[in-house]
């Protein structure tokens, strides 16, 4: 607990320092950003330097960009974030590619370059809330830090996106995410859909399902099965993850990494607290691991948890609660350790598992992280 408080203090200090230097949005100013055929080692990118430019992009996301590239819809362009941006507390962020623009969900590449976007969402009556609404299977989001304050009352809510079919890699979310009476809420994505990949991401803060919200996870509310085997790999959650859902008959699924896992969770670590008041499915890694499983990459559809560590605390002592999997415990669970088990194993020799200190070191050793899923 002492270590966790230290991390949160450091996160707040980082946020304060970043905010002091960030370009803060002056509503309602909007400025069209510039397109570059080559910038920062990337080709054909829209460079974002100011909050006004980011606001312009979200307002025009369903329109033709008039830039000299073949696929020049704003939703298909590549973006290069060149500054820290704070959208302010007086502007409720409209997700890039929001629900009313379903056909234009993001399919380009967004390079965050280690910069931070700070935003708030209030009163948005649409599904799929986050920095992006939905990321297409061709969409990629790399190296962006997000500080978000979201209070939602619709399904599919996450710090990076509401629904992910693409790739989210090496991103950090400092979250205050609350979803009231609706489902699928996560620190990174509300749902990790078929073909979705979440890799090397880090979540801090709070992820909460309020009222009757049932599916809550530190990374995602649900990791969905599919032909392309979506997966969550090498992620670290040190957020408090909770659901207030108190009706055991209808059930809730609350997990440090995923509320429900129907695919792969590998080399992940949870160091925060997982809380639910009733006899629901609560797990340090996932609330429920679905039947079937992939058995190290092969097999029928279902959930598989491999090489994960739970270092946190679970505030629930009912029968469907465990350090790893609330429901489906022991099914397709490979080399998952609690804190004491991990420390004991390490004392006897090298162990290839997620460990928060190693994960943190890997994340900050920018550009030199292993990318094959076989880390540590």
Write a concise synopsis of the structure shown.
By secondary structure, the protein is mostly beta strands.
Topology diagram in text:
Blueprint: H1 2-21, E1 23-24, E2 34-39, E3 42-48, H2 51-59, E4 78-81, E5 85-86, E6 109-111, E7 116-122, E8 132-135, E9 140-142, E10 145-152, E11 157-158, E12 161-164, E13 167-169, E14 172-180, E15 185-186, E16 189-192, E17 197-199, E18 202-210, E19 215-217, E20 220-223, E21 231-233, E22 236-243, E23 253-255, E24 258-261, E25 264-266, E26 269-270, E27 273-275, E28 281-283, E29 286-289, E30 304-306, E31 309-310, E32 313-315, E33 321-322, E34 325-327, E35 333-334, E36 337-338, H3 339-348, H4 356-364
């Amino acid at each position: 607990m002492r270590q966790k408080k230290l991390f949160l203090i450091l996160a707040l200090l980082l946020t304060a320092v970043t905010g002091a230097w960030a370009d803060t949005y002056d509503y309602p100013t909007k400025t069209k950003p510039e397109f570059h055929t080559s910038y920062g080692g990337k080709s054909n990118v829209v460079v974002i330097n100011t909050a006004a430019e980011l606001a312009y992009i979200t307002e025009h996301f369903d329109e033709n960009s008039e830039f000299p590239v073949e696929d020049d819809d704003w939703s298909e362009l590549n973006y290069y974030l060149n500054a820290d941006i704070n959208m302010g507390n007086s502007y409720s962020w409209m997700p890039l590619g929001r629900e009313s623009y379903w056909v234009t969900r993001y399919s380009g590449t967004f390079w965050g370059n280690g910069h931070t976007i700070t935003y708030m969402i209030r009163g948005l009556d649409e599904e799929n809330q986050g920095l992006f609404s939905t990321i297409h299977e061709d969409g990629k989001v790399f190296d962006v830090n997000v500080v978000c304050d979201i209070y939602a009352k619709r399904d599919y809510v996450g710090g990076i996106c509401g629904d992910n079919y693409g790739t989210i890699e090496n991103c950090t979310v400092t979250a205050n995410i609350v979803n009231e009476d609706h489902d699928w809420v996560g620190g990174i994505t509300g749902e990790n859909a078929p073909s979705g990949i979440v890799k090397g991401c880090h979540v801090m803060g709070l992820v909460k399902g309020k009222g009757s919200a049932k599916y809550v996870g530190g990374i995602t509310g649900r990791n969905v099965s599919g032909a392309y085997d979506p997966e969550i790999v090498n992620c670290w959650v040190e957020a408090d993850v909770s659901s207030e859902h108190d009706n055991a008959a209808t059930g809730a699924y609350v997990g440090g990494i995923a509320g429900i896992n129907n695919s792969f969770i590998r080399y992940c670590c949870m160091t925060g607290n997982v809380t639910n008041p009733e006899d629901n499915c609560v797990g340090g890694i996932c609330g429920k691991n679905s039947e079937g499983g992939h058995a190290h990459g092969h097999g029928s559809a279902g959930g598989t948890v491999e090489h994960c560590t739970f270092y946190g605390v679970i505030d629930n002592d009912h029968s469907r609660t465990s350090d790893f999997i609330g429901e489906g415990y022991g099914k397709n669970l490979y080399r998952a350790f609690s804190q004491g088990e991990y420390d004991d194993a390490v004392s006897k020799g090298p162990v290839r598992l997620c460990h928060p200190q190693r994960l943190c070191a890997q994340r900050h050793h920018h550009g030199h992280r292993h990318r094959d899923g076989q880390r540590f």
